[in-house]
Design brief:
single chain; alpha+beta; four-stranded antiparallel β-sheet; 2 helices; 26% helix
Length: 123
């Protein structure tokens, strides 16, 4: 088991090194980055969201990941309704306007170097 974890951490470290992320070395700890890619950040988000909200985490189907330098910003967005064209009373072509109000989706900031997670609900 320990060998598998060590190999995984070595792979993650190598990915982070190739991505140009520099993390401070702390005595007694494995060198970072612990979360070098957006794919890993997304997987962490999904695991935590499913664990905290197993019945409703999928309410917002689109998961986004934003590179914020030393952190990943990860969250969910509601589906975007399609834009529809129609003719008004004067025969002009118009398009619908979609407005999304409110929040409530889980959002996280995940530190690339040590994997620390901060969570809040979107506004």
């Amino acid at each position: 088991m320990r060998a598998h974890v060590a190999v995984l951490l070595l792979v993650l470290w190598a990915e982070g090194a190739s991505a140009g992320i520099v993390c401070p070395k702390k005595d007694g700890l494995i060198p970072g980055p612990a979360v070098p890619t957006s794919k890993i950040a997304k997987q962490i988000y999904i695991a935590i969201a499913k664990g905290l909200y197993p019945k409703t985490w999928h309410k917002y189907p689109r998961i986004f990941v934003i590179d914020e330098g030393a952190r990943w910003g990860v969250g969910q967005e509601p589906p975007v309704p399609p834009v529809k064209a129609f003719k008004n009373a004067e025969g002009e072509t118009m398009e619908t306007v979609n407005v999304v109000m409110g929040g409530g989706a889980l959002e996280m900031e995940i530190a690339k170097c040590d994997g620390a997670v901060e969570m809040h609900f979107s506004r």
